[in-house]
Amino acid sequence: xxxxxxxxxxxxxxxxxxxxxxxxxERILTQLRAxxxxxxxxYAGADVVLVNxxxxxxxxxxxxxxxxxxxxxxxxxxxxxxxxxxEAETIRARFPQVLAVTGAHQYEQxxxxxxxxxPANLSPYLDLIPxxxxxxxxxxxxxxxxxxxxxxxxxxxxxxxxxxDLVSRRPDAILREAEKLVAAGTKELLVISQDTSAYGVxxxxxxxxxxxxxxxxxxxxxxxxxxxxxxxxxxxxxxYPYPHVDQxxxxxxxxxxxxxxxxxFQHAAPAVLKxxxxxxxxxxxxxxxxxxxxxxxxxxxxxxxxxxxxxETEEDFQYLLDWLDEAQLDRVGAFRFEPVEGATANLLxxxxxxxxxxxxxxxxxxxxxxxxxxxxxxxxxxxLSVIVDAVDEEGGATGRSAADAPEIDGEVFxxxxxxxxxGDIVPVTIEDADDHDLxxxxx
Length: 443
Fold this sequence. Notes:
This protein is of the alpha/beta class. The protein is built from twelve helices and 20 strands.
């Protein structure tokens, strides 16, 4: 007699916000897949829809509320999770029909809410998941979260109230996950956390045994070294410029870790940094950047800056522009200051008028575009390693160099590349450049 297989319930997912939220979404979906659920690519085919929200800025909250409203209008059965879950009353006041609201990285509560909304019947014939779990990114790159939360109390940020203090994962668990991801096809590991350079502080940098012998310390340097032995490319995000970051630069020079640091400087003027309550406000940062480039000349540094912070004077802003001239950062993003409910910066005096914020934003973007254009022009004629993200039918391809993280930095556009496949890492001769991107041909 033929076995009649049950039809599993289907779950839709809308994931907003930063890569850390994306990792949360992947973990939730992996658990639900293990519990017998299928994934739906659209609202119509879903028995329940998860909306993983962002709550960092007021504009992000509004985007989250719009996404919830769209999911309710299109499907009607909606569970809300993520950073905005802290404001359950606000969500329920606007959308009383939501089935459940949970906070950031509350995986068990989300899964329980899905179980209640759309019970699943497990089947040994259907309920199989890959060892690496389900991913929302392409097969060839993966985000690897090494910790949750943050110990800093920057005046413009509410992340600690949303995600709590720093909680580091055990290094052996991180390395096991990395091995599974690489075995499943990952070529590039993007290491993320709220403060990657603080990894292991809460664990007192204790050591754990490795399955093949030896041990690994819960420390950014040790973890980066071990990850570099597992994956072809390892990229470090959200690194504060603490002194021990100097120890990672030789790993980049050796080729174990990509020569790339994502450092959220936020500003350079001492008075603004003090009001921001930023950590690592070190006047010697410029000197350290120069030393990093002496050790690893190809190191790419990306950062983000806030313009129009309360009390920022024209002198403060000019200080930032002069600092950027000296620092010559490779990739820069800028944001106009935006009050966030619950942030202490909202109480600071001397708010900057919106028209001044906009004018300063345009000036910093023009400054950093010029720096980027000059640095990219200097790469014309060189041969760089490029990871392929897409191949088109006309024989072209799009990829990224070691200096480019996916979705936030530039790209490398390739000609005569029809023989390549997504995930290939190939040498490319750079033929041209513009303000943000490179153009070349595979060697």
